[in-house]
Amino acid sequence: MKSICKYLPGLLFLLAFSLINLCHAQHLSEKILISPHNNVFYKNSPRDLYFVIHQNEHSLLYIDVKNNPLAFETEPLQTEFLESGLLIKISNNELSKIGNGLHSIKFVMDNGEVLRSQLKIVSDSEAKNYGLNVVAFNVGHGTSVLFFLPNGETLLVDTGYDHMAEKYTIPFMKSHLPVNRHGKQRIDHIFISHWHYDHFHGLNNILDAFDVGSIKYNLSEPERGDWRKDPYNYAKHGFEPVHSPQFKVGNVIDDIGGDDVKIKILNAAEFDLERYPYFHSKYFGEWDNANNRSLSFILKFKDFVFNFGGDTYQHGQIAMLQHFPELLAKTHVYHGNHHFHGGLSTDFLKHINPYLFIASACDVAYDRAAFVSDVMNNVVPTLEQESNIFIENLHTFEVGHIVIRVDGSLDWTDSSTEIIYETYYSEADDFPKFRILYLD
C-alpha cells in the first residue's frame, strides 16, 4: 500500500507559520482509537475499506464480523508528527462475503481491548435518492468542498492547491458532474473563501476542465481583490471573478440550490459594525487578517445544517457566537476552521455541538494543540459525555474523501440518531465510483 501522506502540500508554509502553539503530540489519547467509526459498503460498487488505529504501541490480533474472521493487511502509519498508528486494509472481496444490513466489525488488540466500527452493507449505492450531496475532498493541508444541490446545481467552495485539484478533485468531478447541452461538464457556482493558495490555487485548473457559471469571492484581502494583479489571473478564460456583495456577515443567500436551501453568512471581510460590533478589529487585534476574515457560513437543507468554518480563528468564532447563538445552537456536520491547525474557541465548538467534525488537513495537525488538546481531548469528550452518543472526528489525512448524502427531513432532535457514512482512502490511480454517506 502507498503512504497515506505521499504529498504534504504547504508543509514548508506550515513549518514556518509561527503563530501556532506546538504540542508535539504522539497520541490523541491514552485510549486506543479507531477511525472511521462508521462506514458503508456497496456491493454494486465494491471497494477496499481502510481504517486507522492509534494503538499506542499495541498490535492488532484479528478482525471479525459475527465471529467470522476477516482477512486484512496492515502497515505502520508513522510520520514525523504521528509515531504510533496503524493503517488497516480490508479487501472488497472479504467485505462482499458479508450479508446485507448493519454490522459491527470487531478489532481485537493484543492487550485484550476490543474496538468496534459500524458497517452498513448495501446492495445498490443508488437505491435511495438524496436531496443534498456533499463531498469534502482530501486535498492535504487545504480546503475544497463540493455541494450537489437539490435543484441540480453544483457549488464548489474553494479549490485547494493546483496539484491536488489535478490529482483528486478534478478526476472526481469528471466522473460525477452532469454534461450540459454543449457537451461540457458544469460547475454552477464557485465560492472563494479567501485568497490563500491552499484555498484558491487550483482555480485555473478548474476553469480549464469545466464550464463555470460564476465565481464569487470574499473581500478578505483587498490587495488581491483586483484579479488582474494576481499572477494566477483568469483572463485567458475570458472570465472575471467578482466580489460578491452577498458575502457580508448576517446575509442570507437563498437564490442557490432551490427553495429548501439557505446559506447564512457567519463570517466575512465585510460587516455592518452597528449590527455586529463584535466583529470590530479591536476584538481581533493583531489577528485581524485574511484567515480571521475568511468566509464562514452555514448551509441549511430542510432540517440539516452543514457548517463551513473557513480559516477563522477563535476571534471570529467568538464574534459569531455573540451574534448568532440561536442560529448556531445545532450543527450536524462541522468542516473545521483553519484545518484545526490554528487558534479556536472550545466554547464555540461545544455550542454548535456537531455529530461529525471534519478536519481537512495533513498529518501536521497532530503537532498542533488546536487539534489534539482542544478538539480531541476537550471538545469531543465533553460532547460525548453530555449527549451520551459517539462524536466522530474524521481527518482527511487518514480516511480520504468524505461524502455525505442527506434527505434533510430527519429527526435531529432524537439523541439516538447516529451518522453512518462512507469514506474513501483515495489514490490517483484507483479513483472510486461515487460514494455516499447516510445520515439516518
From TrEMBL:
* Segment forming the signal sequence: 1-25
- Its recorded name reads Beta-lactamase superfamily II metal-dependent hydrolase
Write out the entry's keywords from A to Z.
Answer: Hydrolase, Signal
Keyword Methyltransferase carried by entry: no
Entry keyword Magnesium: no
GO molecular function list: hydrolase activity
- The organism's superkingdom is given as Bacteria
